[in-house]
């Protein structure tokens, strides 16, 4: 079956063609309008999606070397995300399905991040544990089957990606800060020790870390106005180290308690080179089978929506034209 996948939950407009479980194209239009505001402006995101969606879909069809009449079903991100952004993808998908008289498939964006692991081999075996770390979420998910997932832990305040992005703002780095902190940390020594939050079970917290960094920078800048410029690499390395240690401590705890040895990471922050290598080391120590997505499938993309759509297509799991997007939607249903 040939599936067209559409992703528009935040600030990436993306379209992908999946044929019998194989990704043939994955076109991602990044929105640059948000850079000067230091964060995503929902109204501008929605307008940019409207401008991008048709060219992005056309490009995905062209790169896949198919004709649009060959598409058997259309899968779209129903949520969670920005409502105005989700509406563009949802409306497009509904119109396309109606015009072509093909089935419509809803996909949960957080399930999509996890199911990106089924694009290429080796594919994880069920049940596995997935640490999903993105701009809006930080979750530990027990994945029992493609669409049978249980949330076992999550952040009680900021997401890991938010911790990267808000720290970057404090450090006067441009948005989105995650990739830049990653790059600067490579030349740094993690010699500053930031506090580790004490949070119960498999839950996370990052807002205390953000505050600690803010005070640390303010205090040191008072004593030395050039403190930031002189120590930017070491500060980035220290912040990144602490975020990684917070994440992996809880992932290890969850895997040990649930007795799971197949462990994956997903979401935008799983592109972080420090997290990727720390996870590989931990997996060796713990004798885990570890699954790390290719870079292009970490941040938002439609390939993950198309592959999730393919597995739903096999189950005849379709939705009607009455479907509406959901700003909030749990990974577990
Ligand atoms: P959600 O999936 O929760 O709805 P989102 O879709 O906005 O949120 P993603 O696109 O999955 O999130 O991820 C974006 C986040 O990933 C941003 O916070 C960004 O800073 C972070 N990120 C991307 N690359 C890196 C990296 N190399 N190191 C750290 N963080 C990164
Ligand atoms: Mg984004
Ligand atoms: Fe995402």
Feature tags:
binds adenosine-5'-triphosphate; single chain; five-stranded mixed sheet; 333 residues; binds fe (iii) ion; alpha/beta; TsaD; globular; 9 helices; binds magnesium ion; 10 strands; metal-binding; 19% strand
Please write out the topology.
Blueprint: E1 2-7, E2 12-19, E3 22-30, H1 42-63, E4 73-79, H2 83-100, E5 104-108, H3 109-115, E6 128-133, E7 138-145, E8 148-154, H4 160-170, H5 177-185, H6 207-223, H7 227-258, E9 262-266, H8 273-286, E10 289-291, H9 303-314
Parallel strand pairs: 1-4, 4-5, 6-9, 9-10
Antiparallel strand pairs: 1-2, 2-3, 6-7, 7-8
Helix pairs in contact: 1-2, 3-9, 4-5, 4-6, 4-7, 5-7, 7-8
Residues 9-10, 81, 109, 113, 134-137, 161, 164-165, 176-179, 182, 267-269, 271-272, 299-300 line the site of adenosine-5'-triphosphate.
* Count of distinct strands: 10
Which hetero compounds are present in the coordinates?
Answer: adenosine-5'-triphosphate, magnesium ion, fe (iii) ion
* Helix-strand sequence: EEEHEHEHEEEHHHHEHEH
Shape by Cα distribution: globular
Low-confidence stretches: none
Binding site for substrate: 132-136, 165, 178, 182, 272
Subcellular location: Cytoplasm
Main location: cytoplasm
Binding site for Fe cation: 109, 113, 300
Overview of the molecule:
Its cofactor is Fe(2+). Its main location: cytoplasm. It is found in: Cytoplasm. Pfam families: TsaD. The structure is a single chain. The chain is an alpha/beta fold and 333 residues long. Helix content is 43%, strand content 19%. The chain is built from nine helices and ten strands. A five-stranded mixed sheet has the order 3-2-1-4-5, sandwiched between helices. Strands 8-7-6-9-10 form a five-stranded mixed sheet, sandwiched between helices. α2 links the parallel β4 (73-79) and β5. α1 (42-63) runs parallel beside α2 (83-100), α4 (160-170) packs across α5 and α4 packs antiparallel against α7 (227-258). The mean pLDDT is 97. Bound molecules: adenosine-5'-triphosphate (ATP), magnesium ion and fe (iii) ion. Residues 109, 113, 134, 267, 300 line the site of fe (iii) ion. Magnesium ion binds at residues 10-12, 135, 300.
């Amino acid at each position: 079956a040939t599936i067209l996948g559409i992703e528009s939950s935040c600030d990436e407009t993306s379209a992908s063609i999946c044929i019998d479980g194989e990704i043939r194209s994955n076109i991602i239009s990044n929105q640059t309008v948000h850079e000067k505001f230091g964060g995503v402006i929902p109204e501008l995101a929605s307008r940019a999606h409207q401008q991008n969606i048709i060219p992005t879909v056309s490009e995905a069809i062209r790169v896949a070397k198919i004709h649009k009449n060959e598409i058997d079903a259309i899968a779209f991100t129903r949520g969670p995300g920005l409502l105005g952004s989700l509406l563009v993808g949802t409306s497009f998908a509904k119109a396309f399905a109606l015009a072509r008289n093909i089935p419509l498939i809803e996909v949960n964006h957080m399930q999509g991040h996890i199911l990106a692991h089924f694009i290429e081999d080796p594919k994880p075996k069920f049940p596995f544990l997935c640490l999903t770390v993105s701009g809006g979420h930080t979750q530990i998910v027990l994945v029992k089957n493609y669409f049978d997932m249980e949330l076992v832990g999550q952040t009680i305040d900021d997401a890991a990606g938010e911790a990267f992005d808000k720290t970057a703002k404090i450090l006067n780095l441009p948005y989105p800060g995650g990739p830049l902190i990653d790059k600067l940390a490579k030349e740094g020594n993690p010699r500053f020790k930031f506090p580790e939050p004490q949070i119960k079970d498999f839950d996370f917290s990052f807002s205390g870390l953000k505050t600690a960094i803010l005070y640390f920078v303010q205090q040191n800048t008072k004593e030395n106005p050039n403190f930031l410029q002189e120590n930017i690499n070491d500060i980035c390395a220290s912040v990144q180290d602490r975020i990684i240690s917070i994440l992996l401590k809880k992932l290890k705890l969850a895997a040990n308690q649930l007795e799971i040895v197949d462990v994956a990471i997903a979401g935008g922050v799983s592109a972080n080179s420090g997290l990727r290598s720390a996870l590989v080391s931990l997996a060796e120590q713990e004798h885990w089978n570890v699954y790390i997505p290719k870079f292009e499938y970490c941040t938002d993309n439609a390939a993950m929506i198309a592959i999730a759509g393919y597995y739903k297509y096999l189950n005849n799991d379709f939705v009607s034209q009455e479907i509406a997007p959901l700003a909030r939607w749990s990974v577990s249903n």
